[in-house]
Amino acid sequence: NAGVTQTPKFQVLKTGQSMTLQCAQDMNHNSMYWYRQDPGMGLRLIYYSASEGTTDKGEVPNGYNVSRLNKREFSLRLESAAPSQTSVYFCASSPIRTGHNNYGYTFGSGTRLTVV
Amino acid sequence: KNEVEQSPQNLTAQEGEFITINCSYSVGISALHWLQQHPGGGIVSLFMLSSGKKKHGRLIATINIQEKHSSLHITASHPRDSAVYICAGSKETSGSRLTFGEGTQLTVNP
What we know:
The complex is a heterodimer.
Chain A: E1 4-7, E2 10-13, E3 19-25, E4 31-38, E5 42-49, E6 56-57, E7 64-68, E8 74-78, E9 87-94, E10 106-107, E11 111-115
Parallel strand pairs in A: 2-11
Antiparallel strand pairs in A: 1-3, 3-8, 4-5, 4-9, 5-6, 7-8, 9-10, 9-11
Chain B: E1 4-7, E2 10-14, E3 19-25, E4 29-37, E5 43-49, E6 53-56, E7 59-64, E8 69-74, E9 83-91, E10 98-100, E11 104-109
C-alpha cells in the first residue's frame, strides 16, 4: 500500500547512545519532514527536505541530524540522545506545493522514543 | 501568540450530537489543514482548504479568509469519531511546511 513507512515503532535508549530513525515514502512526493510531538506542545518541525538533495532546519533542530538519501528516504539521527529527546517522532511527506484538490500530507505511524 | 490556535482543548459529546471544533490563524497562512490522530497515534490528513467548504462523509470543513477562522464539523457523531483533531496552517512563503495547533481531544460517548 502506498504511504510513509517509518521504523522503528518503539525504542528505548540510554543517555548518550545514538540511533537513526528511518523513513521512506512511495508516493513520489518531493518534500519530507520530521516532526516531534510532546504533550501540550503540538507537533513541531525538526528538519525538512523540500526536495531531493536539500535539507533545512525547522523549529527544534538541536541534537538532530538528517539525511535525504534519495527521493524516497529521509532519515533522522540522534548522535547523543538526551532525556529531553523523549518524544513521539513522525515522518511525513507531501508534494512540493499542496494543491487545492488533494490532502497534501501523509504521515508515518510514529516512533515512540524514550531516553533514560 | 501562536500562529494557529484551536478551541476547545477538550470536548465530550453524546453519540449523535453535532460537533464543532474551531481554529483561528494568523496573517500569512494561506491554507488550513485538518488532521485526525487516533488513540493508536497515527495521523491522517482529513482536509486541506484555502477557501470555502469541503465535505467528506459526516465531516465538513469551512474556512473564512476574512476572519482567519476555520471550523471542523462532525454531523451525527459516533464513538469511533473519538480522536484528537488538529488544525495546521501552511504559508505560501514556506512551501508546504505546517504550523500546528495543539489539538482538540474529542470523546464521543455512546
